[in-house]
Amino acid sequence: MEKYIFELPMKVRDYECDAQGIVNNANYQHYMEHTRHEFILSKGIRFSELHEQGIDPVVARIALEYKTPLKGGDEFISRLNVRKEGIRYVFDQHIYRAEDEKLCVKAVVECVCIINGKLGTHEAFDKIVR
Question: What's the 3-state SS for the chain?
Answer without folding.
Answer: CCCCCEEEEEECCHHHECCCCEECHHHHHHHHHHHHHHHHHHCCCCHHHHHHCCEEEEEEEEEEEECCCCECCCEEEEEEEEEEECCEEEEEEEEEECCCCCEEEEEEEEEEEEECCEEECCHHHHHHCC
